[in-house]
């Protein structure tokens, strides 16, 4: 460890860790963060030349690989010019913004990546705002300059505008700019300049990201900003040492955000080296470490000297905007496909989730078998539900609802800033669709490329179910991005789904014969041979109201009773809704049954008679 006590200009008493830099990569979704980390790892010799390494190696969990997006922030490090650069890769999707907010506390500077064609998008704004609030110096990286529609110069101007709009200081505006093709590990100093490897980027990090500062002779203070788990040593607290030194086998204290404290012994201490966690005997200020030894440790806790405990300020995270009810599976098929079924299982699992998922809240609901789960958006919810079903859970979830607030006796609801990018010819249809969902256009820009960028302010509710319609309306050519934009007065009714449901009127097995006769009534979600129950939604009606239908009907005058024997009839393919589509499709009186094997939409009230009675009561 090289520690220099050279006086820094405005902090004379502060020492500096010259051999460390801590940097986070932030950007809008898909602008190339994880790909850039790949290139940094390759070029700093973390991998052997002929080593087989998957693309976007940091996107290591199953859902991340399947969806091609980053969900969890992750740490890695490279060594360059005798300096250890700790890198945090962050997710770009707005629903995982909570991950970005807290990981920024781990670093002293950011790489702000912006796509050379798309330019700054809503999440670029969100993450930059958070970085500027923490006074983190940015390095701007304009990526994907190989795109045929790249417009780096314009994009740079848009980035300046964004900084100014966010009240950046003179110093913050003085950021270094680099142009990259992350996929090829190429970096340029000007858009049309010479190709370099990433050396200019590494140099910029050493220059522009300040080395960690600390108080010499200060007792230990480490801020826990992430949690991890290891088979061998159990729970790991991942965080940044702000002051002092920690050694394996040290006795330390933990102070919770509520100010309570307990003690533990550091059983193992790890640092991040490339993709590995390596055991180290000690770590000092500015280091990012994983500490084992606490059974119970939370994000936001301070790990400190038991003889001189000093808590660090708590980490504040934006509030959730969407909530859903998670309850046990109450369908007649409950318990047939999953392993974890009880309210106890559900409660334990959700409580475990909250430990690591800081943007998520779990509260008891009215019924003992249900929990209200609140988060940042439908995708965040969908990821949790998908993870749980893969672990063997069965559950029922309700339609996602926005979280409203009472302000001066008035009902307020969350709004989003929405950016639409689409070919000119679809502007009319898109604007109309958004107007009916209470969207107000705030900006319109024509880049002269045949595509137009429209900006709206719209109630978050208005976006539920919009993505599908939008993709259909623009024949798959439109891009849609949105970001939470504060609370505003309730905008009144917004029409949701205009079609009713086709509801199974009895339990049984769907037949091709029945489906054939129903398919001109609407779109079926099921296929012959699928098991159904009374109250299960089997399709979308082409009309407004719900109807109960018999999908188990068999052809008369035949001895063949197999449900699939009559498959020869002309059947349209079933419309299979993905988890996210099902969440968007649901109405208030519906729910989604989730098991490891199946997703079944259902009426909340299953019995046809009971539903009719409820309808009469209104
Ligand atoms: N043409 C081009 N494509 C790139 C470049 N860099 C990344 N991509 C592609 O862009 C897509 C998204 O890349 P990722 O690295 O996953 O982006 P990300 O910013 O990590 O995305 P999230 O973590 O989900 O926010 C991938 O298909 C990459 O191959 C580049 O320089 N040029
Ligand atoms: Mg990523």
Q: How is the secondary structure organized here?
A:
Elements lengths: L14 E2 L3 E7 L6 H11 L18 H6 L6 E7 L2 E7 L7 H7 L5 E7 L6 H12 L4 E6 L8 H14 L4 H4 L3 E5 L4 E3 L10 H10 L4 E2 L6 E10 L3 E10 L2 E2 L3 E5 L5 E5 L2 E6 L2 E4 L2 E2 L4 E5 L9 E3 L17 E6 L15 H14 L4 E4 L5 E6 L2 H13 L4 E4 L2 E2 L2 E3 L2 E14 L3 H10 L3 E7 L4 E9 H4 L2 H8 L5 E11 L11 E4 L3 E2 L2 H7 L3 E3 L6 E2 L4 E5 L5 E3 L29 H7 L4 E5 L4 E5 L4 H10 L1
Parallel strand pairs: 2-4, 2-5, 5-6, 6-7, 30-35
Antiparallel strand pairs: 1-9, 3-4, 7-8, 10-11, 10-19, 11-18, 12-17, 13-14, 13-19, 15-16, 15-18, 20-22, 20-23, 20-24, 21-22, 23-36, 25-26, 26-28, 26-29, 27-28, 30-34, 31-33, 32-34, 36-37
Helix pairs in contact: 9-14
The structure holds guanosine-5'-triphosphate and magnesium ion (MG).
């Amino acid at each position: 460890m090289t520690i220099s006590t050279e006086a820094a200009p405005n902090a004379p008493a502060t020492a500096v860790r010259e051999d460390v830099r801590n940097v986070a990569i932030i950007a809008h979704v898909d602008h190339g963060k994880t790909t850039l980390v790949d290139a940094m790892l390759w070029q700093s010799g973390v991998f052997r030349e002929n080593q087989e390494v998957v693309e976007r190696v940091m996107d290591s969990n199953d859902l991340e690989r399947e969806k091609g997006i980053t969900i969890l922030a992750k740490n890695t490090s490279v060594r360059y010019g005798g300096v250890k650069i700790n890198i945090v890769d962050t997710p770009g999707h707005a629903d995982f913004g909570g991950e970005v907010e807290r990981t920024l506390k781990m670093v002293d500077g950011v790489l702000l990546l912006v796509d050379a064609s798309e330019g700054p998008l809503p999440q670029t704004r969100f993450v930059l705002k958070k970085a500027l609030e923490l006074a983190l110096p940015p390095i701007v990286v304009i990526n994907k300059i190989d795109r045929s529609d790249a417009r780096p110069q314009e994009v740079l101007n848009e980035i300046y505008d964004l900084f100014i709009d966010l009240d950046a200081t003179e110093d913050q505006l003085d950021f270094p700019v680099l142009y990259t093709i992350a996929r090829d590990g190429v970096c340029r100093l000007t858009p049309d300049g010479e190709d370099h490897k990433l050396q200019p980027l590494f140099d910029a990090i050493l220059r522009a990201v300040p080395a960690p500062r600390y108080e010499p002779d200060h007792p230990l203070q480490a801020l826990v900003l992430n949690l991890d788990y290891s088979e061998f040593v159990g729970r790991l607290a991942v965080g940044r040492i702000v002051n002092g030194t920690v050694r394996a086998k040290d006795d330390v204290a933990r102070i919770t955000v509520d100010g309570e404290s307990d003690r533990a012994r550091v059983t193992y201490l790890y640092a991040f080296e490339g993709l590995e966690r390596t055991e180290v005997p000690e770590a000092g200020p500015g280091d990012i470490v994983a500490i084992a030894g606490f059974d119970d440790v939370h994000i936001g806790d301070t790990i400190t000297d038991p003889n001189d405990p000093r808590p660090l300020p708590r980490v504040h995270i934006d509030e959730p905007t969407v909530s859903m009810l998670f309850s046990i599976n109450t369908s007649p098929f409950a318990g047939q496909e999953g392993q974890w079924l009880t309210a106890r299982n559900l409660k334990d699992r959700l409580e475990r989730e909250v430990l690591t998922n800081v943007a998520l809240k779990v509260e008891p609901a009215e019924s003992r078998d249900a929990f209200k789960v609140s988060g940042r958006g439908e995708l965040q919810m969908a990821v949790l539900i998908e993870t749980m079903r893969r672990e063997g859970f069965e559950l029922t979830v309700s339609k996602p609802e926005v979280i409203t607030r009472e302000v001066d006796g008035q009902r307020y609801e969350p709004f989003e800033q929405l950016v639409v990018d689409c070919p000119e010819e679809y502007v009319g249809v898109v604007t109309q669709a958004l107007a009916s969902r209470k969207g107000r256009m705030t900006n319109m820009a024509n880049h002269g490329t045949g595509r137009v960028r429209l900006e709206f302010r719209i109630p978050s509710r208005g976006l539920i179910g919009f993505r599908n319609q939008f993709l259909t309306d623009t024949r798959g050519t439109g891009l849609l991005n949105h970001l939470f934009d504060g609370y505003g007065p309730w905008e009144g009714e917004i029409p949701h789904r205009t079609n009713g449901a086709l509801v199974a009127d009895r339990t049984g097995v769907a037949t091709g014969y029945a489906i054939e006769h129903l398919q001109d009534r609407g779109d079926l979600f099921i296929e012959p041979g699928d098991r159904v129950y009374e109250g299960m939604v089997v399709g979308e009606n082409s009309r407004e109201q719900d109807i109960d239908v018999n999908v188990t009907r068999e052809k008369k005058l035949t001895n063949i009773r197999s449900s699939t024997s009559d498959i020869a009839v002309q059947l349209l393919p079933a419309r299979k809704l993905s988890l996210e589509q099902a969440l968007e499709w649901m109405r208030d009186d519906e729910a989604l049954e989730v098991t490891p094997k199946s997703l079944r939409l259902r009426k909340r009230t299953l019995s046809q008679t009971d539903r009719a009675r409820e309808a009469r009561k209104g």
